[in-house]
Specification:
The structure is a single chain. The protein has 14 helices and 19 strands.
Length: 465
């Protein structure tokens, strides 16, 4: 049992805030007065004095391998085709193997936890021929398990052999989810019935959407995802969809970025969403990242198909690749999450900073976005795209993933609305404490289960070789 005390405010979800204690039993949030402290047992306590508690942030789109390739010369302010060429050359020079993948993932996941992200969706696109895909996947999963982060590992493709990619999905599922997919188990003796944990609205996933491929403890989820129609053809999309259906996995891809639109026009004479529709990839189990260049008609089409979306302004804006019309998507009923994308384009995995950026750029392409809307995107909105209605909120029954943010310092002095101030007032803000599945993984701004300097040194040593 964990009891978090002293917070000035608890952000339960997009519409509910309260004060008092937050109590965790069995990795789940329970009502603070639902259970007495166990007889003769002193519950663990966490001091949140002077702070605000929010749900843990959910990074819906990352490329963790790119944490080893930040600020490379030739990767800033260039067309996406040039960027892809430079990044590919860097991967070949260093050599992508399980050691590199694990070291980069450890750094990226540590950065995530230290900045309040409790779940990371890693769209891994680099699977070199001759390197065991199970070894690459296991390296990332092991890093997440070691640090205590939730991981969604996406078996992506970027020009891979379609059959090899599909076959590797079977192998990765067998190796990492040997007991078969299962959702985080409920605690019926401890928790009230919660038939719908997410509120109605654009952040709630559609009923019946696939949510398989999740480990029994909820800490690892597998998915599939080609990089986009610019890199992969109909066969890849078809075979990965079949693999997803075999194992109950969700599907993810990138759509309507700069290069995606150009290549689709050159190669097929069509728009990316037309191709995705023909290939069966506009469906409720699909999440589309980026969506920088979409028309009003295409937004309506996405809403009708029941897809979810991920906004990545820290990548798209800084690289000059466009800005997704988030207000238009949400207004049409498309659930929108938030992602950082990878270190090769964003250089940082600080989702709260990108939430601030999302508010700043929204008026360039539509109506402004309020801080609570964007916080909901970074929590429940991202969780909706993963099919995980136990994440992204702190109602009874929720997975106990949360952050304690200090709002007592000079950066918050004069702030009238401390919840809005979380996003607006301090671009580099980091949480004091982070809890994942009821375990404290960051305490007083420091990792509990790993040494930050050792993670940095391990990646540096691998890159030198």
């Amino acid at each position: 049992m964990l009891r978090i005390t002293g917070a000035t405010r608890i952000v339960v979800d997009a519409t509910t805030e309260r004060d008092g204690d937050l109590v965790v039993v069995g990795g789940r949030v329970v009502p603070p007065d639902a259970l007495p402290d166990p007889p003769g047992e002193q519950p663990e306590t966490l001091d949140a004095a002077g702070g605000i508690i929010t749900p843990g942030l959910v990074n819906a789109h990352h490329h963790l391998l790119q944490c080893a390739f930040r600020t490379l010369p030739g990767t800033r302010g260039v067309p996406m085709r040039e960027w892809l060429t430079v990044m590919g050359a860097a991967y070949r020079t260093v050599g992508v193997d399980p050691e590199l993948v694990g070291a980069a993932a450890a750094v990226g996941l540590a950065e995530a936890l230290l900045s309040g992200v409790t779940t990371v969706a890693d769209h891994h696109l680099t699977w070199p021929a001759g390197v065991d895909p199970v070894g690459l996947a296991a390296a990332t999963a092991t890093a997440a398990r070691r640090l205590g982060a939730r991981l969604v590992l996406v078996r992506g493709t970027a020009g891979d052999d379609p059959q090899d990619a599909a076959t590797s999905v079977d192998a990765v599922v067998a190796a990492l989810l040997p007991a078969g997919p299962a959702l985080l188990p409920a605690e019926p003796a401890l928790l009230p019935a919660e038939p719908a944990l997410l509120p109605a609205g654009p952040d709630r996933p559609a009923a019946g959407r696939a949510t398989g491929g999740v480990s029994s403890d909820g800490m690892l989820q597998l998915a599939v995802g080609p990089a986009g129609v610019h890199s992969d053809g109909r066969e890849t999309f078809a075979l990965l969809a079949e693999a997803a259906d075999r194992h109950g996995l969700r599907r993810r891809t990138q759509a309507n970025e700069q290069v995606d639109v150009v290549v689709a026009a050159e190669r097929y004479g069509r728009r990316p969403l037309d191709l995705l529709a023909d290939w069966g990839w506009l469906a409720p189990d699909v999440t589309l990242a980026h969506l920088c260049d979409v028309t009003a008609d295409e937004i309506a089409r996405l809403a009708a198909a029941g897809v979810t979306a991920t906004h990545a302004p820290g990548c798209d804006l800084s690289m000059g690749w466009g800005i997704a019309p988030v207000a238009g998507l949400r207004g049409a009923g498309v659930p929108v999450g938030l992602g950082t994308s990878g270190g090769g384009s964003n250089d940082a995995g600080h989702l709260l900073a990108d939430a601030r950026l999302a508010m700043q750029v929204a008026p360039l392409v539509g109506p402004p976005l309020a801080a609570r809307e964007v916080l909901a995107m970074a929590t429940a909105g991202s969780a909706a795209g993963l099919g995980r209605d136990e994440l992204g909120h702190l109602r009874p029954g929720a997975a106990a993933d949360l952050c304690v943010w200090d709002v007592s310092g000079v950066a918050d002095a004069g702030v009238a609305d401390p919840v809005a101030g979380l996003l607006w007032a301090s671009p580099g803000r980091r949480p004091r404490h982070v809890v994942v599945a009821g375990r404290v993984v960051v305490r007083d701004h420091r990792l509990v289960d790993a040494d930050e300097a050792a993670l940095v040194a391990a990646l540096a040593a691998r890159l030198r070789r």
